[in-house]
Write a sequence for this structure.
């Protein structure tokens, strides 16, 4: 982590890991640590209904905590002088005052909606200033500038030429719309941040502290470490597994990458390729069920569908994505004759699972609850509670003699955990309180409680970039709902799509990638889905497929030059240019670029009804056919890019493979037939020329 800190420019560091260091060991640092702890306790209390507040108040308090914690912590982390620190504390105080005002005046604000007082406008302006400032300091200028352009459009867009103009809005009307109610900064993104996202960040933080990273790494090493190119395959597998609990691509790079990138380099992989593999695999964590990235929760809430529907749509594309990365790694290893690690030097996957199998239980329960129709909020609360029970119960069990007594204790704890289905979450809360009480009176127990306390504080700190981005992107959504700005761009996409759906998709893809240059995935998705989602729907693309299309390219923006945040996060670890890493990442991430286009033309790839293929041959055959076609396309693309498939390939062989891959993706008349014919031709050349090495 230190390496990352010293090699990245401050503004780039701020984009993905601004608060990498622990809380400073000073009076200030300790005060902020306990504030972060209180933030997590508040969020858990709300989720568990220990505290019941109106949703609007919860959102306001959530943003207040983000500002109160984030602004001073950033000033300390970036070693600002006394003047800047004082300003940070002053702005943090303003953020707290705004939250308090929203809470105290909640009922009165509802009663005078549409006719705000002067002080309402003053507090509204204060809310905007603090959120813009926090976002600029935390994520750099890109998102605040874009949000500022939208805000300017709301205030002065009436003076633009048609069709860009709007009817004009009073200053007070704009401020009220953006800072009160649920259309602006306290809209759906902030609601999701204050509920699902925060809980799942804590869930991941607790599992990491409990040893989940070591379990995933040991299992990956045991399963594929001895295979050809094993070091890189370990990176793909461990990063994919981390994605099931983390959902943060750049965070995955700087955690698993510390181990996997040096391992790949030591076994002969080029530094740029090693960094590209880690960045690609880590970003894939955001589309890997069951947890996925925070965007998945925003999507479910925006579309008004159950979270399981988003997971279902993401399942096959996620498998194809990682299959594609795995294939590229395998071919690169074959081309450079990179053998695996010695089996005797590797941990046993089975032994690792035997030692840490219990860590998988909260994840298994989470998956069960999500797929059983429970809300993500309930599932996340239960998952977090069970993880806490495992950590605290493990500490108590260590103090018992081995044998029957320890087994009885675990069975009893398991029965209590299962009892929540009948008696609700209260039984689990009582058990947690009892475990805390027992741990207080033992030395190892007190250390475990300190670990849990630290996890709560670190989790709150991890939530800062996501939460502030969600609040600021609410400005963009608020302006679009107020002015109808999305219609203009949407009509343009529809107009292009009437002549060519493919061109509309390319235009949407470019918009996502351009917006992604410096903007986190969540605001990128929200902006582009608000603009392009309705347009793609008007062109006949199923709703969830259009949103997944935008989601994918929002993620891939973090791999695409010139910004490529995930690649620049890998750069100091790989000791290579972030730009070179990003070019390798784009090649490795072929599936990410291919699958969304295929899904638009054949929705069965995302397990959705519709599309001409499903109508012609039936739903199940359509799923099987499109998966086969996607796998074959990825196989051909990998061979064409790497230039090796059992032997080095001649240029003309690579061109045949590339043409075949492209034809299988393009769902036009006869392109499938041509693609399959080229694939057969490519296979025939491989067979005839086997054993020969081209010049």
């Amino acid at each position: 982590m230190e390496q990352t800190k010293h090699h990245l420019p401050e503004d780039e560091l701020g984009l993905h890991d601004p608060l990498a260091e622990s809380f400073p060991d000073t009076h200030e640092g300790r005060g902020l640590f306990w504030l972060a702890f209180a933030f997590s306790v508040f969020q858990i209390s709300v989720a568990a209904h220990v505290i019941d507040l109106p949703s609007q108040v919860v959102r306001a308090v959530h943003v207040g905590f983000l500002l109160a914690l984030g602004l001073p912590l950033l000033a300390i982390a970036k070693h600002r002088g006394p003047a800047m620190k004082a300003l940070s504390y002053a702005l943090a105080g303003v953020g707290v005052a705004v939250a308090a005002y929203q809470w105290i005046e909640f009922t009165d604000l509802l009663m005078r909606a549409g006719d705000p007082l002067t002080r309402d406008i003053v507090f509204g302006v204060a809310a905007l200033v603090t959120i813009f400032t926090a976002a600029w300091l935390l994520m750099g200028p890109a998102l605040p500038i874009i949000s500022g352009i939208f805000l300017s459009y709301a205030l002065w867009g009436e003076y633009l030429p048609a069709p860009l103009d709007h009817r004009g809005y009073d200053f007070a009307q704009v401020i009220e719309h953006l800072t009160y109610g649920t259309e602006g900064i306290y809209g759906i993104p902030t609601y999701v941040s204050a509920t699902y996202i925060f809980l799942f960040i804590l869930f991941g933080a607790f599992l990491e502290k409990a040893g989940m990273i070591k379990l995933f790494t040991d299992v990956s090493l045991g399963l594929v470490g001895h295979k050809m190119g094993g070091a890189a395959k370990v990176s793909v597998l461990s990063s994919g597994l981390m994605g099931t609990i983390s959902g943060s691509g750049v965070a995955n790079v700087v955690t698993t990458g510390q181990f996997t990138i040096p391992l790949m380099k030591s076994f002969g992989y080029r530094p740029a390729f090693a960094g590209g593999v880690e960045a690609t695999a880590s970003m894939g964590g955001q589309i890997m069920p069951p947890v996925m990235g925070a965007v998945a929760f925003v999507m479910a809430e925006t579309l008004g569908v159950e979270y399981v529907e988003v997971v279902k749509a993401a399942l096959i594309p996620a498998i194809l994505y990682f299959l594609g990365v795995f294939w590229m790694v395998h071919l690169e290893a074959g081309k450079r004759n990179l053998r695996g690690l010695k089996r005797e030097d590797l941990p046993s996957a089975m032994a690792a699972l035997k030692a840490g199998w219990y860590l998988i239980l909260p994840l298994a329960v989470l998956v069960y609850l999500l797929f059983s129709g429970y809300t993500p909020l309930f599932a996340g609360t239960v998952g977090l509670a069970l993880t806490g029970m495992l950590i605290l119960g493990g500490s108590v069990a260590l103090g018992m003699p081995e044998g029957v007594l320890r087994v009885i204790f675990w069975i009893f704890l398991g029965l209590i955990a299962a009892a929540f289905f009948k008696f609700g979450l209260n039984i689990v809360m009582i058990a947690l309180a009892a475990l805390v009480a027992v741990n207080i009176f033992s030395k190892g127990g007190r250390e475990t409680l300190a670990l849990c306390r630290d996890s709560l504080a670190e989790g709150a700190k991890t939530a800062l970039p996501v939460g502030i981005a969600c609040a600021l992107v609410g400005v963009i959504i608020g302006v679009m709902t107020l002015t109808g700005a999305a219609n203009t761009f949407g009509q343009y996409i529809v107009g292009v799509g009437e002549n060519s759906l493919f061109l509309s998709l390319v235009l949407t893809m470019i918009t996502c990638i351009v917006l992604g240059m410096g903007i986190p995935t969540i605001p990128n998705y929200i902006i582009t889905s608000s603009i392009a989602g309705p347009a793609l729907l008007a062109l006949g693309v199923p709703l969830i497929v259009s949103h997944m299309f935008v989601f994918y390219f929002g993620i891939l923006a973090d791999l695409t030059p010139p910004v490529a945040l995930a690649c620049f996060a890998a750069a100091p670890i790989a000791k290579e240019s972030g730009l070179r890493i990003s070019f390798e990442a784009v090649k490795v991430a072929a599936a990410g670029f291919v699958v969304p286009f295929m899904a638009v033309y054949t929705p069965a790839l995302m397990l959705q009804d519709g599309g001409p293929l499903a109508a012609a041959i039936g739903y199940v055959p359509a799923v099987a056919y499109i998966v086969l076609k996607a796998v074959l396309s990825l196989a051909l693309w990998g061979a064409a890019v790497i230039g090796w498939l059992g032997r080095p390939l001649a240029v003309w062989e690579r061109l045949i493979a590339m043409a075949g891959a492209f034809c299988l993706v393009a769902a036009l008349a006869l392109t499938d037939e041509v693609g399959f014919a080229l694939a057969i031709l490519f296979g025939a050349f491989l067979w005839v020329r086997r054993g020969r090495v081209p010049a």
Remarks:
- Residues 1-17 have pLDDT under 50 and may be disordered.
- The radius of gyration is 26 Å.
